[in-house]
Amino acid sequence: MAKGDDIQERLIDFAVSIIKFTAKLPKSSVGKHVSGQLLRSGTSPAPNHAEARSAESSKDFIHKLKISLKELNETAVWLQIIIRRKMLSIEECMGLQKECDELCRIMGASVKTSKKRGEK
Q1: What is the rounded distance in angstroms from the CA atom of residue 98 to the CA atom of residue 94?
Q2: Is 43:72 a contact under the CB 8 Å cutoff?
Q3: Residue 84 DSSP code
Q4: Gap between the Cα atoms of 4 and 116, Å rounded
Q5: At what angle do helices 58-85 and 29-43 cross, to 10 degrees?
Q6: At what angle do helices 5-22 and 90-119 cross, to 10 degrees?
Q7: pLDDT tens digit string along 22-76?
Q8: Cα-trace Rg, the chain
């Protein structure tokens, strides 16, 4: 397995889970809006990470990792909105929320490590 394949696979699995999850949201105008936003932000980190892996420079790599992190952070907020609005049960949201938090920490650590390497 090449370097970064494990996180890439995890991000793809997360995107697939987001797709399945959004299908469960209410079909009301609010549900459709939240679903669309969550679908965009939750499926974006995987392709952005793939782009980072083929970056043209370390600066480009860091920039694309940061985009993935921003999208994961946005996803975490949409999940909180779903929980607070009680659009789905907490139990249905917790697995995704936990994975999103873990992915945020991993991506944040990757950005920090990449920045340190770039300073040397």
Answers
A1: 6
A2: no
A3: H
A4: 18
A5: 150
A6: 150
A7: 999 999 999 999 999 999 999 999 999 999 999 999 999 999 999 999 999 999 9
A8: 15
| Tokens, residue 73 | 């952070």
* 120 pLDDT more than 60: no
Which residue's entry shows tokens 């990757």?
A: 110
> Quick one: tokens of 106?
């991993």
C-beta separation of 57 from 113 below 8 A: no
pTM of the entire predicted model? 0.92
Q: Which tokens sit at 113?
A: 């490590």
d(CA 109, CA 63): 14
Taking Cα atoms as reference points, which of 115, 114, 120 lies closest to residue 7? Answer: 114
Average pLDDT, the chain: 94
